[in-house]
């Protein structure tokens, strides 16, 4: 018997994908047989999900209308939940379709709805569908990344808070006094991530000093932004890259223009490398992490962003915040701490199923 993980996308760069890889590693270490399924192979990276069973490649997915896609996805889920001990899903839509398949099969599968996206950002239709189906699937568990997100699921009584684990790094960040800083953003290049407003904040930095922004990631807005800022030498695009460690090691400050993050994985990864943070995301997840850690600043607007960037021109201040952030991540998000929470939940669910 097997634990199955269902997600929307395979071979994609993003926080959810990193979290799934980490969970698979935890399951393997504890000798739980597991399989991974995805609706669409996005192919942003080559075969990081080489063992993942997928429904569509990206080209065929683009040709489908939404109704046909969800019907076929439901049938895919309906077929693949057979002979599974436990189901883990990573988004509201997949969780809803799995709970429906569970009801239609008259099975008693335990489903863990592992949410990575702010609940209120889902469409109202999916919110209503999810609420209705989880009411019918009372044994299902919702797993949130933070206590802030947990509050949004008050309509259900089985909720766990398990953050994503962050790998500990042995690299010692060098906090060198520099005339111009190297800033790094790593993540999706899409509207929600606010990359354009981040670039605008940096190129409008007052005075003659021009700091360099290195942008790592892919997405819908990548080509548009590359074209728009092609003449500005301080803005450098690298495209989607799996091995981000070398970028975190070579830069001075991690910056983000994101509008909201359910759980700021990349910010925490940057903290684990000792980088201080400046974020324009004032939502609960990012604000609480930065506030609790002392690892940087959250800015309400462009003027505040400029003020905090000026503060980080001082290498001593960068070191103070960078070391605080690193210490916080190591104490709260290690593989062993997060792994033990997952194993405790999984063992509890498997015990309940056998009763």
From TrEMBL:
Organism taxonomic ancestry: Bacteria, Pseudomonadati, Pseudomonadota, Gammaproteobacteria, Enterobacterales
InterPro entries: Glyco_trans_1
One GO process term, biological-process aspect: carbohydrate derivative metabolic process
Record key words, sorted: Transferase
Pfam families to which the protein is assigned, alphabetical: Glycos_transf_1 (PF00534)
Name listed for the protein in its UniProt record: Glycosyltransferase
Glycosyl transferase family domain residues: 173-315
Single GO term (MF): glycosyltransferase activity
Organism: Salmonella enterica subsp. enterica serovar Hull
Coiled-coil spans in chain: none
């Amino acid at each position: 018997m097997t634990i199955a993980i269902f997600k929307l996308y395979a071979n994609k760069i993003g926080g959810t994908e990193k979290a799934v890889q980490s969970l698979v590693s935890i399951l393997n270490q504890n000798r739980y047989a597991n399989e991974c399924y995805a609706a669409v192979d996005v192919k942003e990276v080559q075969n990081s999900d080489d063992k993942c069973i997928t429904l569509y490649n990206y080209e065929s997915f683009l040709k489908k209308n939404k109704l046909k896609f969800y019907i076929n996805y439901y049938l895919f889920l309906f077929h693949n939940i057979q002979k599974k001990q436990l189901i883990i899903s990573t988004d509201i839509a997949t969780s809803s379709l799995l709970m429906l398949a569970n009801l239609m099969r008259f099975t008693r599968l335990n489903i863990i709805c592992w949410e990575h996206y702010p609940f209120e950002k889902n469409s109202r239709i999916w919110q209503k569908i999810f609420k209705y189906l989880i009411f019918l699937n009372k044994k299902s568990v919702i797993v949130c990344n933070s206590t802030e997100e947990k509050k949004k699921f008050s309509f259900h009584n089985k909720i766990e808070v398990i953050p994503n684990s962050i790998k500990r790094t042995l690299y010692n960040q060098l906090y060198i006094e520099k005339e111009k800083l190297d800033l790094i953003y790593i993540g999706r290049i899409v509207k929600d991530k606010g990359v354009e407003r981040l670039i605008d904040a940096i190129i409008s930095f007052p005075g003659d000093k021009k700091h360099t922004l290195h942008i790592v990631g892919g997405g819908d807005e990548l080509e548009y932004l590359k074209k728009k800022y092609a003449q500005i030498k301080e803005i450098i695009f690298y495209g989607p890259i799996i091995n981000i460690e070398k970028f975190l090691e070579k830069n001075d400050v991690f910056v983000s223009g994101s509008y909201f993050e359910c759980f700021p994985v990349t910010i925490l990864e940057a903290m684990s490398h000792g980088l201080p943070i400046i974020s324009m995301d004032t939502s609960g997840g990012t604000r609480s992490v930065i506030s609790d850690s002392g690892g940087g600043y959250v800015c309400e607007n462009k003027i505040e962003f400029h003020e905090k960037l000026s503060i980080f021109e001082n290498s001593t201040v960068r070191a103070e915040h960078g070391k605080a952030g690193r210490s916080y991540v190591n104490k709260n998000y290690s593989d062993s701490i997060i792994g033990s929470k997952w194993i405790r939940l999984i063992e509890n669910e498997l015990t309940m199923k056998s009763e």
